[in-house]
Amino acid sequence: MASFTAAAKFLAPVAAARSGGDSRAPPPPFPSASLRPRRKPAPSRLRTVLAVSSDVLSGNKSAPAAAAHSAVTREEALELYEDMVLGRIFEDMCAQMYYRGKMFGFVHLYNGQEAVSTGFIKQLNQADCVVSTYRDHVHALSKGVPARSVMAELFGKATGCCRGQGGSMHMFSAPHNLLGGFAFIGEGIPVATGAAFAAKYRHEVLKESGPDGLDVTLAFFGDGTCNNGQFFECLNMAQLWKLPIVFVVENNLWAIGMSHLRATSDPEIYKKGPAFGMPGVHVDGMDVLKVREVAKEAIERARRGEGPTLVECETYRFRGHSLADPDELRKPDEKSHYAARDPITALKKYIIEQNLATESELKSIEKKIDDVVEEAVEFADASPLPPRSQLLENVFSDPKGFGIGPDGKYRCEDPLFTQGTAQV
Amino acid sequence: MATAASAASSLQYAPHGVGAASTKKPRSVVPAATARGRRGSVRARGGMAARAAANAEAEAESKSGGHEVLLFEALREGLMEEMKEDPTVCVFGEDVGHYGGSYKVTKGLAEMFGDLRVLDTPIAENSFTGMGVGAAMKGLRPVVEGMNMGFLLLAYNQISNNCGMLHYTSGGQYKIPIVIRGPGGVGRQLGAEHSQRLESYFQSIPGLQMVACSTPYNAKGLMKAAIRSENPVVLFEHVLLYNLKEKIPDEEYICCLEEAEMVRPGEHVTILTYSRMRYHVMQAAKTLVNKGYDPEVIDIRSLKPFDLHTIGNSIKKTHRVLIVEECMRTGGIGASLRSAIIDNFWDYLDAPIMCLSSQDVPTPYAATLEDATVVQPAQIVAAVEQICQ
């Protein structure tokens, strides 16, 4: 566990809970928190209610430590770079396609957060599971779902990874163990807990053991979710049964227009891990190498059966909450602060400075990804829309669930069943 | 017509004690010979001929012995048999393990199968139901118990979005073979929140199947069928029916999830009911028979989807329908059943469909008021007399 401290701020369970962690002052109270009877305030002492002042901006956790991670090989560095560039270019293409009327509804883009997805998911095996939220395109890509499947799904075509039935917020891929894609925040966390439970069950009850250890599940979710009941309930159960799961908080400070500090009594999410008996780690989510370091340790812990970890990644989304969000509440200086910490630029700089690759090699990776994403768009454009008959096909895994019709036969036995209606 | 209703169920409704052994002949059941076949192939086949053959075989078998069980024991037997046969079947719920289940349905199972297969969960319905979904996606077959069905309101997020819809939104990639079960319905002065009927709340969720058991025989059969089903199934049990006693076959059997059960054949009126109201209907049927009526009583059992074949055949014979249910009038199972009947069998009706439901009130604690919220046998008798005018 010592390696956590190298890259990130780390709280061990119990010890830190008692000692109170660090000695930073708590955030300033709201003016109305005082319980004294109100008198007419003297004008000079009137405090204006501050819009959010992000204590993260005050420099406590954000300063990237120099070389606070183990060495990375050229192959690994290029893999990380390529994955992050894929995420960025894909999401930029999504925005373009949306404004051209190729995709509709709610589309939530991941620009700026690539380091978290790449840093974590590239440490997983194929058998490990990922559970995400509505901001799931890049998690899908990092887990290995082909860009053309994701793009076709976004276009609502029958060749999409979910046959066009899920859409942007419901990316699933059984071959890649991507368990969704959930539209309500928090509802994926119990599903991830269940997948981790199944891994433990397979090992202990069914006596199936993998060569490495337990299959690990990663649950990704945001700062807003950390005030939701399902988050706390699952932290409890995961630690209780020592499930092989890592809870990854992508704290981008904003839940649509709700600042994390306005919504949360104690905004330091990583501290909530030790409250349940698991380690809580805070890491700079704009630095893929640091994220990778923490991810390795947390995933290995889970694989060995030592239980869950709560990892809070400080990150930022460069675009609005969704493509419909005017994004008027976030201040320009906050945005420029994080734009300067673009994870892709940072990794590029690192690779070149460490002589792991040349600039032209990196440019050729970018060109290759451009082609991949272009091809994905062409594939999605050319793909057919789902036919009417697809409407009733996947409602039930066993279509007998549509029941017995007036003629005595199961409705699904009627050859024209899928052209009919779904009354039960 | 004054034929005695001896061929029908003589299962006595006895809220606290035991009932008489039943001589009921099960209408549709898969004979043991096919029940031992390949896993997953045990289903009653649609089609009248197949069902008639199955009935004949079952009649012969049920005369050959059997053992008496209480309803909760029947549920446990079904669950235990499935857990023995398939190691991926597991149970999640509050107090299901060491405590044995608050209605003893899981008594002894934790000792038999271990603490991981019979998992005592913390009090977090939404999350442990979601855990069941995640586990089902990764190949397990969880049986999630709500200590009282009403508690599953907390799990509505997971039941609606994930149990019901996830197979669809994943484009068919993941199946959710989960069983969600628990006792619901109006009990004996349990108060409003412990007396809820969630079948009316869940019925709109697409992708969910719902069944309600009412006898030890169909409780065991439906439990087994629900566990074997690849669909998410909600199995509604009733707090007041757990101590019903009946003789059930020694041989393995399952009941078809989508079929209704003919309780008492008749000619004058079709009475459609389920769960506890079946017993109020049968009590009213005794009075009706003495008055010279011949009601046909069908326990619909499958709340979603409806068995329109059995129901339709009955309507084509009697031309009059009375629905007796325990859920509230507004948006209840009866409301949906009524519109399904109108859509499909309008031409066969000689009278408007009557529906007796519970009042749209929270169930009061006081005994007299509680009795007034649910349908009583006297109301059923009056309704039949009105329909048959």
TrEMBL record, chain A:
GO terms for biological process: pyruvate decarboxylation to acetyl-CoA. It holds the Pfam family E1_dh. The keyword Chaperone does not apply. GO terms for molecular function: pyruvate dehydrogenase (acetyl-transferring) activity. InterPro entries: DH_E1, PDH_E1_Alpha_Subunit, Pyrv_DH_E1_asu_subgrp-y, THDP-binding. Its EC number is 1.2.4.1. Gene3D superfamilies: 3.40.50.970. Its cofactor is thiamine diphosphate; Mg(2+). Residues 16-44 are annotated as: Disordered. Residues 83-386 form the Dehydrogenase E1 component domain. The keyword Oxidoreductase applies. It catalyses: N(6)-[(R)-lipoyl]-L-lysyl-[protein] + pyruvate + H(+) = N(6)-[(R)-S(8)-acetyldihydrolipoyl]-L-lysyl-[protein] + CO2. Keywords: Oxidoreductase, Pyruvate, Thiamine pyrophosphate. PANTHER family: PYRUVATE DEHYDROGENASE E1 COMPONENT SUBUNIT ALPHA (PTHR11516:SF60), PYRUVATE DEHYDROGENASE E1 COMPONENT, ALPHA SUBUNIT BACTERIAL AND ORGANELLAR (PTHR11516). The pyruvate dehydrogenase complex catalyzes the overall conversion of pyruvate to acetyl-CoA and CO(2). It contains multiple copies of three enzymatic components: pyruvate dehydrogenase (E1), dihydrolipoamide acetyltransferase (E2) and lipoamide dehydrogenase (E3). Tetramer of 2 alpha and 2 beta subunits. This is Pyruvate dehydrogenase E1 component subunit alpha. It comes from Leersia perrieri.
TrEMBL record, chain B:
This is pyruvate dehydrogenase (acetyl-transferring). GO terms for molecular function: metal ion binding; pyruvate dehydrogenase (acetyl-transferring) activity. InterPro entries: THDP-binding, Transketo_C/PFOR_II, Transketolase-like_Pyr-bd, Transketolase_C. The keyword Plastid applies. Keywords: Chloroplast, Metal-binding, Oxidoreductase, Plastid, Potassium, Pyruvate, Thiamine pyrophosphate, Transit peptide. Coiled coil: none annotated. Its cofactor is thiamine diphosphate. Residues 69-244 form the Transketolase-like pyrimidine-binding domain. It holds the Pfam family Transket_pyr. PANTHER family: PYRUVATE DEHYDROGENASE E1 COMPONENT BETA SUBUNIT, PYRUVATE DEHYDROGENASE E1 COMPONENT SUBUNIT BETA. It is found in: Plastid, Chloroplast. Residues 15-47 are annotated as: Disordered.
